[in-house]
Amino acid sequence: MEGLRTGLYTATTGCRAGDGRRDHSPAAQLRKKKHNTSAIALRPRFPPRAPTPRTEQSRRLAQATAMTAPSVAATGTAAPPPPPPPLHLVVVPFPAQGHVAPLLQLARLLHARGAHVTFVHTHFNYRRLVLAKGEPAVHPSTSPSFRVEVIDDGIPLSSPQHDIPGLVDALRRNCPAPFRALLARLAAEADGGAPPVTCVVADVVMPFAPAVAREAGVPEVQFFTASACGLMGYLHYGELVRRGLWVPAMKHMRLRDMPAFCHTTDPDDVMVSVTQREYMASAAASSAIILNTLYELEKDVVDALAAFLPPIYTVGPLASVLASSSSTPPPAMDISIWKEDTRCLPWLDGMPASSVVYVNFGSVAVMTSAEAREFAVGLARCGSPFLWVRRPDVVDGEEAAPLPEEVVDAVACGGGMVAAWCPQAAVLGHAAVGLFVSHCGWNSMLEAVAAGKPVLGWPMIAEQTTNCRQVCEVWGNGARLPETKVESGAVAGMVREMMGGEMGKEKRAKAAEWKLAAEVAAMEGGSSWRNVERLVDDVLLLGVGSK
Hints:
Blueprint: E1 9-12, H1 26-31, E2 41-44, H2 56-68, H3 72-75, E3 88-92, H4 97-112, E4 116-122, H5 123-133, E5 146-151, H6 164-174, H7 176-191, E6 199-203, H8 208-215, E7 220-224, H9 228-235, H10 237-242, H11 270-284, E8 289-291, H12 299-305, E9 312-314, H13 318-324, H14 344-349, E10 356-360, H15 369-380, E11 386-389, H16 405-412, E12 416-419, H17 424-428, E13 433-438, H18 442-451, E14 455-457, H19 464-475, E15 478-480, H20 488-500, H21 502-522, H22 527-540
Parallel strand pairs: 3-4, 3-6, 4-5, 6-7, 7-8, 8-9, 10-11, 10-13, 11-12, 13-14, 14-15
Antiparallel strand pairs: 1-2
Helix pairs in contact: 4-13, 7-8, 9-12, 13-21, 15-20, 18-21, 20-21
């Protein structure tokens, strides 16, 4: 693709691939000591960069250090090097739960490692959270070094969350000016002694934030909240429009498996246009790209992405890395606009191991009333107890219809439970859950990997189709419902096969392997753990990314 940087990545494992001298299986890695020097880590092999001019902030810092440091002549010994300036990160997520959650995890992880954090909500998501959960939902820490700011986005509170093109258009039109004003205010506070902003960490789909950061001379890095395979799909929208050819490292991918925004016959469609001309162009111009994935899961795609993007840091699953970073990890944050029904956990306690089908189609995607009914009847007839998270707004454009009588009967006799929302990580980690029926959103896929649960996919929007194809064809930890109109018989049949058939047995075994791989990546010395350290040392702290 024109204008994109090139580079190569290698994975270092401590010995040459295929020489047979070491066992690098997840199980073997997990048995090693925590300070495991053979854990996989990505190391960029880019040509040396030319020296970059200092920003005004770093120039002032150097002058102040030179003025205050005692000289060798005065003390008779060399002065110790000054401490590094405090790291101050401005974190900017897209205003949707699936974006806010991983960026909040990253912010908390870096805050736990000593960074000052300014977490930026837009008014749309901030108001929805406060109305639903109160102020604590938007303030993840009482520490003065973790602050929350809100910028105007011009989006009415009544706007539907699933109107993605409408949200995208409003954000790109309305947010640059208030974000510019926020950075100016933070710079003024720095003149008064507050920590200066050292880096903007922006969601890839908030391209105004890195653009404004570059205007202000502030380094920026970008975080892609979905999978590496989804990012590769988006990068090749232009090639699909021009030629319709295969995508590097994903030759098994069909056009219908590509991120669903490209499922249009209009080359000027707003989501195709914005993805190509703004999101991906902005990502390619960034100092670094952060991915909430584990390298071992998406190695081929991450390596191939290096030909198109700046240095890549795989730091996932972030929730697991965050939990590994402290003997007393911070509590989980509930940032959904629906109240979690925690009654599902004691209900699961009363179920046999691996017996329950857990169903959740995410926080944004919607379905028709006919589809909702077919899923409901299929669950009632699958022969397994089920926990179905059914959001109040899951049926597009209308109030949720009454549950079919079969579902009501199943719930009444204890064979099923329906909840508006639930603590998903805790549910997936419960021993009673044997299958996850999912939309294949990336946060859900990572939680399934971390919990070792097989997946039955029914993708709906964005890169969910791409994730589902990888689950089925590459990672092997799941299957997909038929790519036709949803029918209750197909739902019931696939659930039975995944719960008790040979296919389900194979998928569970693969899911267990990926669970071990995720544990190894997140533990101290693992690939994601080490990449967080490299991200801090190579980019955030040392200002390697300054333009």
